[in-house]
Design goal:
- The complex is a heterotrimer.
- Chain B has one domain: Hypothetical Protein Ychn, Chain: A, CATH 3.40.1260.
- Chain B is globular, with a radius of gyration of 14 Å.
- Chain B is built from 5 helices and 7 strands.
- Chain C has one domain: 3-Layer(aba) Sandwich (Hypothetical Protein Ychn, Chain: A), CATH 3.40.1260.10.
- Chain C has a 5-stranded parallel β-sheet, with helices on both faces.
- Classes of the chains: A alpha/beta, B alpha/beta, C alpha/beta.
- Chains in contact: A-B, A-C, B-C.
- The interface between A and C is medium-sized, with 17 and 20 residues.
């Protein structure tokens, strides 16, 4: 099964990066391919749950919904533990199914699964 | 065509608009060298990168991305642009006409085509190597 | 495993440097061969005497690490070979060398 790693280092909404990355990840996974979305730096905000109707509030699509849909089709979403800690984000505030890994584990994942790699 | 299908393919995603950064310049130079060396090149313009498809770019002092895009098409690169990104930015209407999407536009460089995100998935699947420019 | 990194910018923070260059340290554990290609603003990473997150910090890199910088981009930025970290290779056709490497030799390629 072809593997793709997509790295996100931007928080949702301020830039299109997170939305576009998840959009591509979902399309890739929905065709039966293997994907791991890696949340680094400010990108870990993509893993937080509790967005309240971004369409209504800021006229932008909800990335939390995208993450849930990706997890439903067996996509992996992985957040950097160090980046979470720096931002005071506790694991229990993450979307159910988002994995938390140490930087060394993430590096190993990227090298192992990164046959194809996109950075957003 | 058979010979062409045997070529190794490098697929490049551009995520940034021209001129605001050098990413489009880097992609164009990289793609041209890949073509010169006999590799198949496929390019996906995503998000603000669709501005690279605009006709009549005239940057005067900056790297001429529009001219480079035309040259890449002439040399055989397949350049696909994100359909919804292009509709959002007013390049195409993308409405159904006689059962086909209407991609006609005077604003887009000839020879460039449009696809959905699933077209990009196909490009990724065909690729021997994938490069991303401008996302980070 | 041969891994190519293409850097077209400099890191913007410690965290960003870990993201872009951490793979050098991750690779060390796995005996991976790394080739770093510096293009555009990425060539600034190769200047010697830099501290903190702004440089390549090759002291932490695996022994089998090669760094190649674009001659054109160095010249444009007023950086001479004498300004570079020891061992950095200055390449006239960086794009051509990079493309051949990733298509014919490398097993992984990561770009920033």
């Amino acid at each position: 099964m072809p593997k793709l790693v997509i790295e996100i280092s931007h928080s949702p909404f301020g830039h299109e990066n997170a939305y576009a990355a998840l959009f591509a990840a979902m399309a890739w996974a929905s065709m039966g391919n293997e994907v791991a979305v890696v949340l680094k730096g400010e990108g870990v905000h993509v893993g937080r749950k509790g967005q309240v109707d971004p369409f209504k509030n800021i006229s932008l699509p909800p990335t939390e919904k995208q993450v849930n849909e990706l997890l439903e089709v067996d996509g992996r979403v992985v957040a950097d533990r160090q980046a979470l800690q720096k931002r005071g984000i506790k694991e229990e505030t993450l979307i159910k199914g988002v994995e938390v890994l140490d930087p060394i584990e993430i590096r190993a994942l990227i090298i192992e699964a990164g046959e194809k790699f996109l950075s957003f | 065509m058979v010979e062409s299908s045997r070529k190794k393919t490098v697929t490049m995603m551009l995520f940034s608009a021209p001129f605001g950064s050098q990413y489009a310049d880097h992609l164009c130079r990289m793609a041209e060298r890949a073509l010169d060396k006999g590799y198949a090149v496929e390019i996906f313009l995503y998000s603000d990168a669709v501005h690279a498809q605009m006709t009549e770019q005239n940057p005067k002092l900056f790297f001429p991305v529009g001219e480079a895009v035309k040259r890449l098409i002439e040399k055989g690169a397949v350049i696909m642009s994100c359909e919804i990104c292009s509709i959002a930015r007013g390049y195409i209407k993308g409405e159904l006409r006689d059962g086909k999407k209407d991609y006609s536009s005077t604003k887009v460089i000839n020879g460039l085509n449009f696809c959905s995100i699933y077209g990009f998935v196909d490009m990724l699947n065909r690729a021997d190597r994938v490069l991303s420019f401008g996302g980070s | 495993m041969r891994v190519c990194l293409l850097l077209m910018r400099t890191p913007r923070s410690d965290e960003d440097a870990e993201r872009m260059l951490g793979i050098l340290r991750g690779a060390k554990d796995q005996g991976t061969e790394i080739v770093v290609y510096l293009l555009g603003d990425g060539v600034l990473c190769a200047r010697k005497g830099q501290t903190g997150y702004v440089g390549l910090n090759l002291g932490n890199a695996p022994e089998k690490t090669t760094v190649r910088a674009s001659a054109r981009d160095l010249r444009a930025r007023g950086i001479s070979e004498g300004d570079l970290e020891p061992g950095v290779e200055v390449i006239d056709d960086l794009e051509g060398v990079f493309i051949e490497d990733i298509m014919e030799r490398a097993e992984r390629v990561f770009t920033w």
